[in-house]
Amino acid sequence: MAKPVIMSVDDDPQVLTAIERDLRQHYKNDYRVLKAGSAQEALDAARQLKQRGTPVALFLVDQRMPEMTGTKLLAEMRELHPDSRKVLLTAYADSEVAIEGINEIGLDHYLMKPWDPPDQKLYPVLDDLLSEWKNRVHLPYDGIRIAGARFSPQSHAVREFLSRNLVPYQWIDIDEDPSMRELVAAFPGGLARLPVVLFPDGSYLSAPSNLTLAEKVGLHTRPKSPFYDVAVIGAGPAGLANTVYAATEGMRVVLIEQNAPGGQAGSSSRIENYLGFPNGISGADLAQRASAQARRFGAELLTAQEVVGIRREDPYRILQLADGSEISAYAVVITTGMAVRRLERPGIEPLMGYGVYYGPALSEAVTYRGQDVCIVGGANSAGQGALFFSRYARRVTIIIRAPALSPSMSHYLVERINATENIHVVSRVDVAAVRGNGHLEQIVLRELETAQERTVDAAAMFICIGTAPHSGIATGLLDCDEKGFICTGPDLPRINGRPRGWTLERDPLLFETNVPGIFAAGDVRSGANRRVASAVGEGSAAIYSIHRYLATV
Ligand SMILES: Cc1cc2nc3c(=O)[nH]c(=O)nc-3n(C[C@H](O)[C@H](O)[C@H](O)COP(=O)(O)OP(=O)(O)OC[C@H]3O[C@@H](n4cnc5c(N)ncnc54)[C@H](O)[C@@H]3O)c2cc1C
Prior knowledge:
This protein is α/β, with parallel strands linked by helices. Helices cover 29% and strands 23% of the residues. It is built from 14 helices and 28 strands. Strands 10, 11, 12, 13, 14, 15 and 28 form a seven-stranded mixed β-sheet that branches. It has a five-stranded parallel β-sheet with strand order 2-1-3-4-5, with helices on both faces. The longest helix is centred in the C-terminal third of the chain and has 19 residues, at 532-550. Bound molecules: flavin-adenine dinucleotide. Residues 233-239, 256-259, 263-265, 267-268, 271-273, 306-307, 335-338, 360, 380-381, 384, 470, 473, 522-523, 530-533, 535 line the site of flavin-adenine dinucleotide.
């Protein structure tokens, strides 16, 4: 934690040097003593300190300065550092102004010049004020701070990204902190470029992309080598398992993830059906353990890097990344899983991130503490989300089209939901529209049988209505089923008994697509059983096929 600051401000260089000397002599062990030769210099420094999160314990300001009076400057400082103690340096003739200041700006004290001897006239007063400040002030957080608005989609995305990459941060809602709002408004782009991520070294990023932020916080985003034996796309359970097994088999392997390790499982508050964890495990914990395991065996994990295309240049498979760079490998494994399905209803698009979210956005739970939230959908992800939010929200309403939660939701979740007092299920309804002025306020529900409409008040709505495959990178190159899932091995469609474009003597291996050396595993694969254990199993088992393929190149 950086030392708190004592700042003295005076336009007379001699007085300024003298006060700084006396302050340093007495306070240098516990405080950083700063000086400013003008009101503007002081304001700039105070803004910088606010940006860094460094507290100012005390301002000692001369009343008579040409560009701004001391009382006016202290009034501005009060906005930036409301908890600081404020002392005015006055000449005898200014004492009336100082007394007025006590009422108007909450001046804590005024000191007559000269203050000699400081042991009698300066330190006793300041010691008192500083010990009072210390007792009252809760010293601020010393790490990364995100200043944004609760209803800003980009603020939500940045928080989610850092949380899922296990980077600690402090969240500051600028609607509840006027001085931070003012500071953010003064950055280039102002309030239109939220959030602003503030770093302890005083630097900041406005509305950063995942890649920029990842690089700044030291996540690994660039490959160390241009070539690998295996390149795995997507760090969900399938990709992580595949990477661990490839690395333990001695292959040079890189895993490329567009967001953070964990995939869909990473957004699960508790996975209870994964072998070996009788009390369940959170998806984030599972992802962290798997990432550590993969790194331990020498695998490279890139985060915040999206693969946008795959090219075949035999014997190499070349991945194009969103930043324009490329990675080559002998074999590629696509474990890109699924993305949440969209709900097209009037009002949803403009309120995205303003109370409407796709998936159970766990990082938002605290935001909606004590409020009413709705979960749309009846699968396990909706059930887990409802149980998680019920610990924070006043009331959680699950909205489903079916007559009951079973059978789309696992029995153990249904039982737990039934036993949770603040979770309610509204069945046989559809979301007809959502309404809200700047953020979600109401959901319009339509009865499926009668088409009658009614509204429910809600501060947040989490849409968990299923998923669609993340298989865009396969378009034109790989065969997919009618829903877009990638076909592999014996499931590949055949023309005259052979997969499309297949020229080899042998048949495609298990998990191999219609392009030799490109494999698919986990949820993105046609016919997969969409569960964590299945994804892990497929990712691990695919290594056997990859081994056999690598023996041929
Ligand atoms: C909220 C929730 C709760 C769940 N709970 C359970 C449970 O309790 N038990 C259970 O068995 N199953 C559960 N599931 C299902 C389970 O999480 C999935 O079956 C499993 O995660 C699938 O793993 P995967 O690796 O195939 O894909 P995913 O987990 O979908 O991971 C795919 C990864 O690929 C990345 N990616 C996609 N495209 C690209 C690209 N172009 N470039 C780089 N990266 C890319 C994605 O960002 C993602 O991280 C749950 C799912 C959800 C959403």
